[in-house]
Every structure is written in C-alpha cells, then in structure tokens.
Hints:
InterPro entries: 6-PTP_synth/QueD (IPR007115), 6-PTP_synth/QueD_sf (IPR038418)
Enzyme class: lyase
Pfam families: PTPS
CATH superfamily: 6-pyruvoyl tetrahydropterin synthase/QueD
Pathway: Purine metabolism; 7-cyano-7-deazaguanine biosynthesis
Strand order of the largest sheet: 3-1-2-4-5
Cofactor: Zn(2+)
Number of helices: 4
Shape: elongated
Helix content: 25-40%
CATH topology: Tetrahydropterin Synthase, Chain A
Amino acid sequence: MSAYFGRRYTLSASHRLHSDAFTPEQNRAVYGKCSNPHGHGHNYVIEVLVRGEVVPDTGMVINLVDLDAAVRTQVLTRFDHANLNLDPLFTSQVPTTENLCRTVFELLKDAVPVGVALEYVRVEETENNFFQYFGASSAEAA
C-alpha cells in the first residue's frame, strides 16, 4: 500500500533579489524593496512530502528520524541563518523563493532513503506567499 508522509521545517535566511544583468533601475523596477542592497530576511517554513510503500514491519512510509536527518544535512545546516546570495548554488541564479524551493527539492531528491520518492517541496516565505515544486517534468527535461 502506497502512502504519503509530510513534515514541516523552519529556517531563517536572508537574501537580496538582484540580477547583475539588470541596471540598478531595472532591479528596483523588477524586485522593488526586495532589491535593497543590504538585503532582508524571512522565517521560511519548508514542507516536504514523500511517497512510498508502507513497510509492514514498521507501519511507516519513512522513519521521520531518517527524513529529519536528510533535511538537516542537506538543507537546514546549509541555509539556516545564512545569506542565500553567498551560497555557491545561487551564484548563477537570483535567490528568489521559487529558486530556493527548486534548489531544496534538488538537494533532497537523492537524499531520501531508497524506496521513498520525494513528491514535492513547498516553501512558505510569508503568511501570504508560498511556492511549491514537484520536480522537473518530462516536458521541462526535453
């Protein structure tokens, strides 16, 4: 029997939305106050949903200790209390929450235990803004 398990995590990080390809005026027009040279921060909520077969011996899709370890190692240790602009994964992309969400998915997809599939990652930036990523579809990969 296949089932889903979801878990939420929090981290605090700062970023500045800015593209070197844009002039200062274009950055202000595109990113508004989020392009402040001093940056700004968020208390992000990251939701991870995995799918797998319920293991008869344990009655679980995944041991939450294993999922916590993967998220802590791949995501929380790296990004919590960090400036996203300084992370090597964001040197060639603007650290928008859309890009953070996709990056977290990519970091976790191979870190979850064998037999469990990462369904999606959702990142809440504020109480009003959230972003969700389900992985690259075959259309995106083409």
